[in-house]
Amino acid sequence: MRTLALLLPLAAMAFASVPASAREVDRQEVDEQFMQHLPQERKLYCLETKAFTMTDGSERSACVNWRAQVRTRSVRTYAALNGPEEDSSENIGVAKNCFALAVASQNAPDRATFNKDSFLAGARTEFAASALANAMQNTDAYRIRTYRKRFWLGGR
């Protein structure tokens, strides 16, 4: 009982720092990597067949158009800007511009690896500076986060 009484104020503080409702305002891809531990899927198949009459008069179906297919498992990392459910369109526009600058500041084309923690730290710093420089309102309701999605690269 006493432990519960001590935890309630901490739980209230944790929920107070999270916006009551948020939506994804903008998103940009910031990294893509092959999943090295999963093998590629390879498939050879017949795309088109044709019926032939053989010299002995029998009918035979044969493939006249072969295809080879390779699929590779990949992971994309996205940076997302979450914001309040309701805000002025002007402020949302400013937030999107600040987000674009924040992502660009951390997304060098010659980067060899992606480090989520350093990306977020740098992007959040740049977002805050840009928001201040552009007199963005309601800045505490906006958050930058990353998330990953797995997908197959190649046909099926």
Shape: elongated
Low-confidence stretches: 3-20
Query: What is the count of DSSP helices, taking H or I runs of 4+ residues?
Result: 3
> What's the order of the H and E elements?
HEEEHHE
Q: Rg from C-alpha positions?
A: 26 Å
Largest sheet: 4 strands, antiparallel
Structural class by secondary-structure content: alpha+beta
Q: Can you walk me through this structure?
A:
By secondary structure, the chain is α+β, with helices and mostly antiparallel strands. It has three helices and four strands, in the order αβββααβ. It has helices at about 1-15, 90-105, 115-135; strands at about 20-35, 40-55, 60-85, 145-155. Strands 1, 2, 3 and 4 form a four-stranded antiparallel sheet that branches. Strand 2 and strand 3 form a beta hairpin. Helix 2 crosses helix 3. It is elongated, with a radius of gyration of 26 Å. It starts with a helix and ends with a strand.
Features:
3 helices, 4-stranded antiparallel sheet, elongated, about 160 residues
Topology (SSEs and partners):
Blueprint: H1 2-16, E1 22-34, E2 41-53, E3 59-84, H2 89-106, H3 116-133, E4 143-153
Antiparallel strand pairs: 1-3, 2-3, 3-4
Helix pairs in contact: 2-3
Brief description of this entry?
The protein is an alpha+beta fold and 156 residues long. It is 33% helix and 40% strand.
